[in-house]
Design goal:
α2 runs antiparallel to α3, α4 crosses α5 and α6 packs across α7. The two termini are 35 Å apart. The protein folds into two domains: 137 residues, no CATH class; 40 residues. It has 209 residues and is α+β, with helices and mostly antiparallel strands. This is TraC-like domain-containing protein.
């Protein structure tokens, strides 16, 4: 059986991440937005209906596609336990020390027996509306040997795409704000970390386990 010798990077569709914008190998771009959550179950019936109505209006107002992505990962409780242990070392009241120690033991046993998941919500905003000439120039810039004169044109194309993505992000931000959901764009380091976790899930599990 033939085994591919291609490096793993060739199977990742991302060419680079610049100014918080994901540039794909085909020249398309993506902006990743982090969205807050709301406790829908605790809302009154009227509030739930209003949220659903506003979300419906938001979806109907879009003239471009968006992708909703939910990252569900096992909650790393170790920083919290470390804070409690530090508090335990500073506590002088014996009764409080006993209570803190028992609470630490309870949290540790509970998290070991039950998988507590942490959910993070993202919205991916795409842009692929380059004119053919500008798109060719962008691909030339992203290639190892860009064509002569392509760099300046591609920079203009990148700025145009950045502007379009920002406008789309504002539309998403304003539309979801009416439902009580806050949205912020991720920076370069945050996007890089997110995609690293997606493509290397085993590393994340090792760090938590």
């Amino acid at each position: 059986m033939a085994i591919s010798s291609k490096p793993a990077q060739q199977f990742v569709p991302i060419k680079e991440i610049r100014d918080g914008i994901v540039v794909l190998k085909n020249g398309e771009m993506r902006m990743v937005l982090l969205a807050s959550s709301i406790n829908f179950a605790l809302k009154s019936s009227d509030e739930q209906i209003a949220i659903i109505y506003q979300f419906q209006n938001f979806l109907n107002s879009l003239d471009f596609s968006v992708q909703f992505f939910i990252e569900s990962r096992r909650l790393d409780i170790r920083p919290y336990l470390a804070t409690l242990s530090e508090r335990l070392g500073q506590e002088t009241n014996e009764m409080m020390r006993i209570q803190i120690k028992e609470y630490i033991d309870f949290v540790r046993k509970f998290t070991d027996s039950a998988s507590i998941m942490q959910k993070t919500f993202f919205i991916i905003v795409p842009y692929a509306g380059f004119a053919p000439a500008a798109q060719d120039a962008m691909r030339g810039l992203l290639s190892k040997k860009p064509a002569r004169g392509a760099s300046a044109v591609s920079s203009e194309a990148f700025e145009e795409a950045s502007s379009q993505l920002e406008q789309r992000a504002n539309i998403v931000r304003q539309g979801l704000a009416r439902t009580g959901v806050r949205v912020v764009p991720l920076g370069t380091e945050e996007v890089t970390e997110l995609y690293y976790k997606i493509f290397n899930p085993s590393d994340t599990e090792k760090s938590i386990g």
